[in-house]
Amino acid sequence: NDTFPIKGKINVLAFGKASILMYHAAKTICKAANAFGAGLLITHQNEVNLKPGSSVEEVIFSTHPLISEASVNAGVKAKEFVEAHDGDDILLCLVSGGGSAMVALPVEDLDLKEKIEFISEVMHMGVPEREVNELKKALSDVKGGKLAQASRDGRLINLILSDERNHQFAAISSGMTVCNELIDPVRVMDKYQLWQVPSVQVKKKLVDFGKKRNVARSKDINNFLIGSRDDLISSIKSIARASKFES
Fold this sequence. Notes:
Elements: E1 10-15, H1 19-32, E2 36-44, E3 59-62, H2 69-83, E4 90-95, H3 99-102, H4 112-124, H5 129-138, H6 146-150, E5 155-162, E6 180-183, H7 185-191, H8 200-209, E7 213-215, E8 221-228, H9 229-242
Parallel strand pairs: 1-2, 1-4, 2-3, 4-5, 5-8
Antiparallel strand pairs: 6-7
Helix pairs in contact: 4-5
């Protein structure tokens, strides 16, 4: 029941495994209100069946679950997209799981291969997923709220489908368009004694990021959970009951 005044246009950015259906629904609503500005849809490389007859301003095909050069291209395009608007516009972000692989952009002067090798090795060492995410965010130019920070739209509205166990927005698709508080890669590196793992350049970037940084706190960001795996399970239960399944 929240309402937001529309002074300019609504620019729609969709990424993640549910991006196609979310994008087309949002675009239809915005166009009906004569408020649609621009759109960018980032989707899995295999999902080529876009709605027949639909006109998408720009579709970026990326990869999942593995990060690739296509992911970096998607990261570049996403950053360019959010930087291209003005303060009267609203950036409507449609977020679902899987965006971490589909949208990637290493920080300046860091090779993608170096980043992938470091993160892969850390994961194989058993470092917990959320703490690995802190390292990912520190080495990314879009993850951890940095895409929100780059936005020139006056307001950001995130509509989020959660695949995360506690629905922590900063953990879903690496929290690219939400405020991220207290990202602290140095703490993670110290806690798990990881300083011997990274290359010289990766180590430098982690140290340069520093400790306990808040990203995108100054932005006007509004987050809404619009669905989760809890809803899916509830729906399956209802169907099972209606079908009179006994187990």
